[in-house]
Amino acid sequence: MNITLGLYPQFSSVTTLEELTLQLCRKVLEIQNNPDLNLTNERVITITENITEEIATINLTELEGTIVNGTISIKDYYNFDFTPGTGVYPYDRETLLDALFHVLAYQHKQELVIAKNPGSKMCCDFSIESVTEMSTSQQLLISCSLTDYPITINGNTRTSKPYLN
């Protein structure tokens, strides 16, 4: 699904929603693996690729979220200087993990629209649980996954295959 260039300035060359999702995931993984940016050693994302079938599986587990003015906001775990988005929802988020969560939620919404998803491909899945501990600042535990996410592998380069219109 085509998107306007530069909605998230650090991903300014991305032209599709599917590629933006993949690039956000890769950036989270890169930061997660960098001890200078992941000071508390938070492990929230895994990415595995099946080179033969050209698909990826991405799992985000137990993201901590709060509800702020009716919108889910994801805790910022990392010491990363993220440039906020410049567009309207979901391209207006201010932290990397929050941007990824909302782009995934938006992508899932597009998967449910027949005209936008003529192949009926469903990659996105979510689990949101209430936190039951009193006096916790985080009200939700959120897990997201992308299963059988279509990618193109060209040598060392991996890009997403658009599947939404």
Characterization of the model:
This protein is an alpha+beta fold. The chain contains two helices and six strands. It has helices at about 15-30, 95-110, and strands at about 45-50, 55-70, 70-75, 125-130, 140-155, 155-160. Strands 1, 2, 3, 4, 5 and 6 form a six-stranded antiparallel beta sheet that branches. A hairpin with a 4-residue loop joins β1 (about 45-50) and β2 (about 55-70). α1 packs antiparallel against α2. The chain is globular. The model has no long low-confidence stretch (mean pLDDT about 95).
Instruction: Kindly name the structural category.
Output: alpha+beta
- Over the alpha carbons, how many angstroms does the gyration radius reach? 16 Å
The biggest beta sheet, please? 6 strands, antiparallel
Unreliable stretches, pLDDT < 50, 5 or more residues?
none
Descriptors:
165 residues, alpha+beta
Task: Give a nutshell description of this structure.
With 165 residues, the protein is α+β, with helices and mostly antiparallel strands. It is 19% helix and 30% strand.
Topology at a glance:
Layout: H1 17-32, E1 45-50, E2 55-68, E3 71-74, H2 96-111, E4 124-130, E5 140-154, E6 157-160
Antiparallel strand pairs: 1-2, 2-3, 2-5, 4-5, 5-6
Helix pairs in contact: 1-2
